[in-house]
Write a structure and sequence with these properties.
Number of strands: 8
CATH topology: OB fold (Dihydrolipoamide Acetyltransferase, E2P)
CATH architecture: Beta Barrel
Strand order of the largest sheet: 1-3-6-5
Order of helices and strands: EEEEEEEE
CATH superfamily: RNA polymerase II/Efflux pump adaptor protein, barrel-sandwich hybrid domain
Number of helices: 0
Oligomer: single chain
Number of domains: 1
Strand content: 35-45%
Length: 90
């Protein structure tokens, strides 16, 4: 016979640190080549001139310059257009 009552299992004990996503360089700031401009999950903002997107959707500066943001409409595969923010470095 058991001397300890049944303990059960806890389901909400997992905890992971935040991913530190978001805008790292804002409009009007000067950047150098390779600096991270935006860390994001999925392509919520798109890379414009002077920038490139890496495999994990992080947008980097591909040249020295000033960061700018602009609203553009991007067409999806279905033909629907959706507003997106385009990040550029001039």
């Amino acid at each position: 016979m058991s001397h300890v009552k049944a303990g059960g299992s806890a389901k909400n004990v997992k905890n992971s640190p935040g991913q530190r996503l978001g805008v790292k360089r804002f409009g009007g700031q000067s950047v150098r080549t390779g600096e991270v401009l935006i860390r994001q999950t999925g392509s919520t903002k798109i890379a414009g001139p002077g920038t490139f997107m890496s495999r994990d959707y992080t947008i980097h500066a591909s040249q020295d310059g000033i960061v700018s943001f602009k609203k553009v409409s991007k067409s999806r595969f279905t033909g629907k257009t959706e507003p997106r923010t385009q990040v550029a470095v001039q």
